[in-house]
Amino acid sequence: MTQTDRPCLAALVVLILLQLIMLSSLYAEVPPHPPIATPLFGIGPFIGASVSAAIAAIVLGESRAGRVLALLATLGALVSFGPQKYLDPQFPLIWPAVIAAQLAAITVLVRLFPALSRQGA
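Structure tokens predicted for MFS transporter:
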């Protein structure tokens, strides 16, 4: 990912905005919102970490750390918006966000993996 890789940057921004909107709906308790917690962790802190990783990836750009953070941010977003959401009872209410996030995640991964393989990672 380079600073001029506009599709990857745009996709990370999509993931950031979608997660911030979901986090806001969680705090405001506006349905549909994510659960407060899952058996493994609290959703609010997890979304915060994922958004932070995406912003750091944008700031760090083409560096190895930037690519790793972009990958982590994408995987973090897929916890909230991954294919498992097709089985969620609230899917009819959240499908635009799920599909947008999945398209953004695919964009990041397609743009990211060739860069990682060139670095020998």
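The helical segments are 6-28, 43-60, 64-81, 91-118.
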